[in-house]
Amino acid sequence: MSARRTAILISGRGSNMASLIDAARNPDFPAQIALVLSNRPDAPGLATAKAHGIATAAVDHKIYAGREAFEGSLQAMLDTHRIDFICLAGFMRLLTASFVERWRGRMINIHPAILPSYKGLHTHERALADGVKLHGCTVHYVVPEMDSGPIIAQAAVPVLDDDTPETLGARVLAQEHVIYPLALEIAASGRVRIDGNRVIGAAKTNDNRTLVSPRP
Ligand code: GRF
């Protein structure tokens, strides 16, 4: 099977994007990063992608009258680049149900918490306020309901006594960079089956790496 033509949608820094670009350099990787698209023309991640020789585009949500018009341009850009798989990586726009349905099973997202806990924003602050001892990140298929959808990969990290949102966030981010490439590999390979909210067959990757929590 040829590599899936994949777009990464970003809004900012793009560190997860960089980890995906890096993984996709391997010729055996089942996804090829064909486009990095931002809704913010000034997103620093665009320059990083360009430096890697990846096609980039900006579709500025501010110049559109509404979500449908914005997504019309987004879809046109994806069509131009013959994209058939999408990774949301710090993309800070909510997508309409019709756009999400169009990409169902072909669009994945990374969230900085162990879903279904801590959907939404400020996950590290909320985890610290609740006193949880484990926190982490999740890669999941995108469904119309925000931060929901079948889970492909998760990683857990310890919450330490002297953590701040920044130190905890940095520990989580390091694991995001590990599990997002793994999850893209799993999802793009077509070896998994979605059964309700479960992703069946996601436990192992091609080279038999098992998805487990890192050691603290
Ligand atoms: C990450 O923490 C990701 O989980 C969240 O937004 C952040 C994006 O960071 N959705 P980056 O742009 O990938 O560096």
How would you explain this protein's 3D organization?
This protein has 216 residues and is α/β, with parallel strands linked by helices. It has 2 domains: 103 residues, 3-Layer(aba) Sandwich (Rossmann fold); 106 residues, Rossmann fold (3-Layer(aba) Sandwich), CATH 3.40.50.170. 32% of the residues lie in helices and 23% in strands. A 7-stranded mixed beta sheet has the order 3-2-1-4-5-6-7, with helices on one face. Helix 2 links the parallel strand 2 and strand 3. Helix 1 packs parallel to helix 6. The longest helix has 25 residues. The chain starts with a strand and ends in a 16-residue tail after the last strand. The C terminus is likely disordered. The protein binds 5-O-phosphono-beta-D-ribofuranosylamine.
What structural keywords apply?
single chain; about 220 residues; alpha/beta; Rossmann fold; 2 domains; two-stranded antiparallel ribbon; 6 helices; binds 5-O-phosphono-beta-D-ribofuranosylamine
Q: Short description, anyone?
A:
This protein has helices spanning 15-23, 44-51, 67-80, 97-102, 123-130, 165-189, and strands spanning 4-10, 31-38, 56-58, 85-88, 107-111, 134-141, 151-158, 193-195, 198-200. It has 216 residues and is α/β, with parallel strands linked by helices. The site of 5-O-phosphono-beta-D-ribofuranosylamine (GRF) has 15 residues, from α1, β5 and α6.
